[in-house]
Write a structure and sequence with these properties.
By secondary structure, the chain is mainly beta. It has helices spanning 3-16, 68-74, 113-117, 136-139, 205-210, 401-414, and strands at 22-23, 77-92, 99-112, 122-133, 157-169, 174-181, 222-232, 235-243, 270-280, 290-304, 326-343, 351-360, 368-379, 389-399, 423-437, 439-449, 456-457, 460-464, 468-478. The chain is built from 6 helices and 19 strands.
């Protein structure tokens, strides 16, 4: 997409920003997803149903386009296009203070194979991204763990997202999906966490840090196959196998092997993940709805071990180019909980919801060994703004003991002072204003403590990077 196109979209959002209520997204893609890969509704940040075809009431900015959209859907074709733009700045903290712009254009095509070709239960989908602007974490905060924007990516440009075919059988109780897939669409997700813009509340920092290239998550999909079963109304079982590295091995020139997401690699080991979900209550009637998940993943390649063995003996000099023993395989276990704890009488999803996630893995082969996040959202907190959502969330990632020992080893062998990394914490306060069904405006404030675990500030030897305050404004439009 050209720069003039980006400027036009940004200008359009700016011109509309002063206008009253606007809102709605496509049926399966909210304007502001938990992560840019998500394609499911988010109770904590869900959008209202369109109230008509008036400009401020319809589902999409362009409406039905003279009936074209309805005719395509009747033939099994659903097109989607959305634009997310944001401005972020850190008035204090990090390596330097600055203000950046970032944007994400997301396009998709879904084909109902039954309507289009008469094959019951079949679905085809393809999505793509155009990532523009730059990221605050990479450019100002020193590349901290909890990336402050879930649309920030190091490989900017035009990328293929997902490209898959899914077949459902047994009245939809069992489905198989195969092709170029993103794990963060269905696995490890917290629905109420979808309100927040820090990337860790989508695909958690633990997975993004310990998996090669961040794992099969936005922005790079990988070849894989996923099976899904619903043995009972309240139970769902998911399992998937993916290629082990979205980017592949790093080349000597350090350029990405798969910069556009079209390499379709199958030679980088195996990443396998499984999850069991239990849903209780109902979003329409009965008790308060909630969903609880437990899962785990395993990754097959070999991983360099830390500097010290379990008995404390030094395995290798940190200056010897990392010639240490390697561990085969890597794994993690996790749990996720989302629960609506109070609902406004006579409403479907207006009320207070809470979420929590916890996960961990072996510290003898990972930079991190523990992660947890939690938060609360309140949809309809302000009188007269029943489709707006207010939220507060916190996440913490703990460096493994082995990583801390590596820091002390390096200080010992080099004779230079080195800070021992412990943990990094982020707190985010967000308010999502549903201006219209097709438009959201969202101010956010974040506080990032112990950047990179309290790593040293290159500009001030012996001192850690200052804690950062991050302020931002995001707008999302569904066309």
């Amino acid at each position: 997409m050209s720069r003039s196109r980006h400027a036009a979209l940004a200008l359009l959002a700016a011109l509309l920003a002063g206008s009253p209520a606007f809102a709605q997204t496509s049926d399966d893609e909210p304007v502001l997803p938990a992560g840019p890969a998500q394609d499911q509704s988010i109770p904590g940040a869900s959008t209202p149903e369109p109230k008509g075809e008036g400009f401020w009431d319809r589902a999409n900015l362009f409406g039905d386009v003279g009936g074209l959209r309805s005719r395509l859907i009747a033939r099994g074709l659903t097109l989607s296009l959305s634009e997310t733009d944001e401005v972020l700045g850190n008035p204090t903290g990090g390596r330097r203070q600055t203000v950046v712009y970032g944007g994400l254009t997301r396009a998709g095509l879904a084909v109902d194979i039954d309507r289009a070709f008469g094959l019951p239960g079949g679905t085809f989908k393809v999505t793509g991204y155009q990532i523009h602007g730059c990221g605050l974490s990479l450019n100002a905060l020193g590349g901290n763990l909890h990336t402050v924007s879930n649309i920030e990516a190091s490989n900017r440009g035009t990328l293929l997202g997902e490209l898959w075919y899914e077949q459902a059988v047994l009245d939809g109780k069992f489905t198989v999906r195969a092709g170029q897939l993103l794990a963060d669409v269905e696995f490890l997700s917290s629905e109420y966490a979808g309100l927040f813009t820090n990337a860790t509340f989508g695909w958690p920092t633990f997975a993004a840090t310990v998996l090669p290239s961040g794992g099969p998550a936005y922005p790079l999909a990988v070849l894989g196959i996923r099976v899904k079963a619903r043995p009972a109304e309240a139970w769902t079982v998911l399992g998937a196998v993916f290629n082990g590295d979205p980017s592949g091995p790093e080349r000597e020139d350090r350029r990405a092997v798969n910069p556009s997401g079209t390499a379709f690699r199958l030679s980088d080991g195996v990443f396998a993940i499984a999850e069991v979900q239990y849903a209780l209550g109902s979003s329409d009637v009965g008790g308060l709805p909630g969903i609880y998940k437990i899962g785990g993943w395993y990754h097959t390649p070999r991983f360099d071990s830390p500097r010290r063995s379990s008995d404390g003996l030094l395995l290798a000099d940190p200056l010897s180019n990392g010639q240490v023993a390697a561990r085969r395989g890597n794994w993690s276990l996790y749990a996720v909980a989302d629960q609506l704890v109070w609902r406004e009488d006579g409403t479907k999803d207006q009320g207070i919801g809470v979420f929590a996630r916890v996960m961990g893995g072996p510290g003898d082969r990972n930079l991190l060994n523990f992660y947890a996040d939690a938060g609360v959202t309140w949809k309809g907190a302000l009188p007269g703004r029943m489709d707006d959502t207010l939220g507060l969330a916190v996440a913490v990632a703990r460096f493994s003991d082995a990583a801390a020992k590596s820091d002390s080893d390096t200080a010992y062998f080099t004779g230079e002072p080195r800070r021992i990394r412990r943990n990094e914490t982020v707190i985010e306060l967000a308010y999502q204003a549903q201006v219209a069904p097709w438009w959201i405006v969202q101010p956010t404030a974040q506080y990032v403590a112990n950047l990179n675990g309290g790593a040293a500030d290159p500009a001030r030897p012996g001192r850690r990077l200052p804690n950062a305050v991050v302020l931002g404004l995001r707008t999302g439009v569904t066309f």
